[in-house]
Amino acid sequence: MIWAIDHTATIPLRDQIITCVRRGITTCQLTVGDQLPPAVELAEALSVDRNTVLAAYRQLRSDGVLEFRRGRGVRVAHATSPQSTVVEAAQQLIKVGSAHGLDQDQLIQLIRELT
Amino acid sequence: MNNTAVHTIYSGRSTNWPMIGLSIVLVLPLLAMAKGSNGSWSAVGFLIPLLVVVAAVAANLLTATSLRTTAGPNGITVHCGVLGWPRFRYPMHRIQHVEAIEVPRSQWARGMYWWPRRGLMLTLRTGPALRITLTNGRKVTISTPQPQAAILAIDSARRGAFPSTGGLS
After folding, report:
1. For a Cys-Cys bond, which of A30, B76, B109, B166 suits B90, CB 3.0-4.6 Å?
2. 8 Å CB contact of B7 and A4
């Protein structure tokens, strides 16, 4: 899985780590039951404090995205269904785009311009 | 430690489930052999096989069951087994070249070992792996599920640029 953290961004590092995990699940780089790196190792690799990673993991646990199990580390929760909201929104976009005569390439171009 | 603002790292884990199963299966007959010829347990007869079993299982769990690899601006780090030890660190300035390879089925790839010309093998299974060539000419091969993503993270760190993460899943 790819983690991208911008140390100069105004977005807190904790939130960037949360976004990385959510994106990993959405793009299927992480699947249900997958174990995440220990906080110490991830913090060292990302050059952030261990508590920042732990705070992100705890927030994701509160959101039901991750689960902590003694001796088994931090894993993607079984109850997670990450893509449904994004897929619904994308389907809605395709539907509206088709109604306005936009093809696949034009929709992708539009998304690129907006992001 | 690298001081670039954007840190793009790759993290991957490989687990050798067959080895874990095999360890358990092989432990049982060894313990059964600890029984004396008259079918009773003796203190010495039980203790020696037990120590062998504990040592074998501990060595197996430490080295041959799982690998956690991180690649990024700080180089490549490999943590072995459940305790994350032994640990292998290859800082960026020591890495000359990285490439994605396939460990063939014909090749023994069940743990940590060194082999002439192949170098250090940290391969728990056949299939995709990351091969590092160090500046001193040594080679290290690491089992990892997405070696291309690891290469992307290393290249990105060398360029100091933010890569596109699309298409890595």
Report:
1. B76
2. yes
Report yes or no: B63 and B81 within 8 Å, Cβ to Cβ: yes
Look at B169 and A8 and tell me if their CB atoms are within 8 Å. Answer: no
Q: Tell me the residue type at A38.
A: P
- SS3 for B6-34 is EEEEEEEEEECHHHHHHHHHHHHHHHHCC
Instruction: Decide: A91 and A46 in contact? Cβ < 8 Å.
Output: no
Q: For residue A78, how far is the Cα from the chain centroid?
A: 16
Give the tens place of pLDDT for each residue, A25-35: 888 888 888 99
Q: Which residue do the tokens 């976004």 mark?
A: A19
Q: How confident is the model at residue B40 (pLDDT cuts 50, 70, 90)?
A: low
**Interface A-B: count of C-beta contacts within 8 A:** 80
Closest to A2 measured CA to CA, from B167, B125, B101: B167
Residue from B148, B139, B157 nearest B97 by CA: B139
